[in-house]
Amino acid sequence: MNSKREADKHMQQFYRYVEDHSAGYVQELQSLLREPSIITNTIGMTSTATLIEQIMLRMGCQVRQITCGDSKPYLYGEVGSGPPTILFYNHYDVQPVEPLNEWDFGPFSAEVHDGYVYARGAADNKGSLSAALAAVETYRKVIGDLPFRVKFLFEGEEEVGSYNMERLAQTEKELFQADLCFWGSGVLDNSGHPYISFGLKGMAYIELRCSTLRSDIHSAMAAIVDSPVWRLLYALTSLRDARGTITIDGLDTHVRPVSAEDRDRLVPSDFDPDYFRDLFGIKEFLHSNDPRELMERLFFHPSLNICGIRAGYTKGGTKTIMPREAWANVDLRLVPDLTPELVVNLLRTHLDTLGFGDVELLLKCAIPGYRHQPSADHLARIRQASLETFHSEPSFLPMMAASGPMYHVCAPNRLPVLSFGVAHQGSHIHAPNENIRVHDFIQGIKFIGRVLDLFGCPNRSGI
Amino acid sequence: MNSKREADKHMQQFYRYVEDHSAGYVQELQSLLREPSIITNTIGMTSTATLIEQIMLRMGCQVRQITCGDSKPYLYGEVGSGPPTILFYNHYDVQPVEPLNEWDFGPFSAEVHDGYVYARGAADNKGSLSAALAAVETYRKVIGDLPFRVKFLFEGEEEVGSYNMERLAQTEKELFQADLCFWGSGVLDNSGHPYISFGLKGMAYIELRCSTLRSDIHSAMAAIVDSPVWRLLYALTSLRDARGTITIDGLDTHVRPVSAEDRDRLVPSDFDPDYFRDLFGIKEFLHSNDPRELMERLFFHPSLNICGIRAGYTKGGTKTIMPREAWANVDLRLVPDLTPELVVNLLRTHLDTLGFGDVELLLKCAIPGYRHQPSADHLARIRQASLETFHSEPSFLPMMAASGPMYHVCAPNRLPVLSFGVAHQGSHIHAPNENIRVHDFIQGIKFIGRVLDLFGCPNRSGI
Lengths: 463, 463
Fold this sequence. Notes:
2 copies of one chain form a homodimer. Chain A is an alpha/beta fold. Helices cover 34% and strands 22% of the residues of chain A.
């Protein structure tokens, strides 16, 4: 009890400091959000990295900018001394901003309205990156030198598949040695209740292209000439049925049945179908309306989505042409045994078997999934941090439906991964009007500080 | 024989004049081609109309610029006095120029290389429009006052479906009174052998749009949320089978079987599959490799083509999003009993029946087909003109596979329609590097002059 009170006292100081300085944290977040860092268009990557480096230097980190092959700069920083060592992985790149006309505010003006910060990257993932930096800097300022080691590893290529991370993990092995990886990705619900997860799906982002003609042709010829657009559409619709089940030959044999333990880990109250129905205008979910079954699909089944498709004349008005080529980008979200390479091989064979040898495949992004179910001890610490900062029981999810480079970051040392972020369910991640709530951001700084404290000095907190 | 020799003499003068002044005709064509007149983007319509009006005034026409509703200006001109009266229908608008990077020359620089003029609109349809003006002007200059009446009717909305033509035909009935309509559309083959046709297919240009979501969603949700892109793809692939046969419920009952007479009108040597295979890189034709069967499909069967399709992120790089909407523009080429309105109704019912009530339809362009099989007498005159100018037997096609507003132009007075144009099979109509051969253009002026002479003064030519 004595140590508990002591812990409370130093953390109460920490919490109060965070509250008193919340305006400053928001300002620093805004500076970061005002730097566009769209990796897809390679806009503003260096200036964003430089800004983050300055913050890391200010807080006393040993900082290295590392490039690996043709990579954008990785930012690596260390502060404090362990054991234990906590590795904060995050990324400073963001998704493109299109469609621009659907934004209510400039995507890089980082305006605050009614307690929300609007910007591309606010939720994915500069809000959580900034919260982690703020938590560590404030911890040192308020509580003193860190009795544990913090490693920051920030990349600029997450949104395009972290394609240099595997090589970095091979060439800079010591950077990845730690006791826990903290990945700043996750959401809170409308009442500020946090979701914390311990794994993520893999992804294969694949371009399918059909270019069967030498040039566009007058569309009157469609009576006798097959079109690459039709061929691409038949190829695509052969990959999935209308109920959303992937029909690529042989793929289902690589999807493990959901275990009883995993099913038990899914808590129906953690998924509110009506909330998402309302948020996105969804009329019917695929497969089921049962929360547990929907979560099972989200976490343990692969999915196939068309991110973009284009052929022919796509401006306004009319143009009567048979386009000479058509292409689509699809992303498959993958479960553990289903690697991106395996998926591409299955897809190639499937298309060839159906006579679609003329549909070319290009694997543009490949991320294996990763998962590490935490110990009861870990869960207890996270629960305590959540109760103290969000005043709410956390929801623990075995997986998140999204993807990230945790396999390359964590697999070499089999690190437990803890995913928590300051986004919320209405953050419009990857979409127009991306936003986070200022309150979540501030509470998130407190939560991260408390997690550091509990994982970094377990004895002090008496767990 | 006497009258024949006399005819020869005045036409020989005409032919010689055309040859001697060919450079001037090409220059005037180039001026016309250098005026962009892209109706889809409403670029340069007025200046193009003004240039044509000036040419018509110069050659002694009574000219009217007519607008009808919100139409671009119609140019109507009369010269000579009949009977008979020959109505030249043509259009001065052109298709968009995208994809621009696939042009070898600027689409509006109208450069001449190795006997070809390259420009958007060269083949469709300013080459033939210019040839008709040149033929009439030269006929008056060389042979004298016209003993027949020529009417010119040029519109600026053909490429978007001539949507004001029906109203013009109702409000300006007298403009359409004539004995023959000459529509400047058609091709020559590689040896300069002309194809002349007597009807065209209808067209329905329809947008299909599926917008089932309120906003784009992170693509991880594809495991449980159906996507408007997938829905559009399933809807589209329900409309046609992989062999190109339209499968819209009930549509086939409105397609008349090909009559024995029509089948007999198809001459296998008029369609060279290998030529098109090579030109466009076509590996296999749909349905058949037999020339007669391919022509039968082209002229007497409906077709369904996707002119453009778009959803989601279509720039370079990757973006993992489920798009909130998807759309496609399709064009159906129609046979006589299949009106655009009927097609839209059948399509709506088909989609509703299959549960695609959320796929919205917009009929963006509706053109009924038209056909008028000419008399043997007419065919004989055209044959004579072809022999004299192209030194080649013409090919007579009962139909063309393309579409145009001939129904509205010709149906009120049941005009015979004769389609001849100075394009060739490699003209890349609607596509990059659109071109015509200078030789075809010059011979075309002679041919049109001779057709005028034979139809306008049948007795003089002794037919």
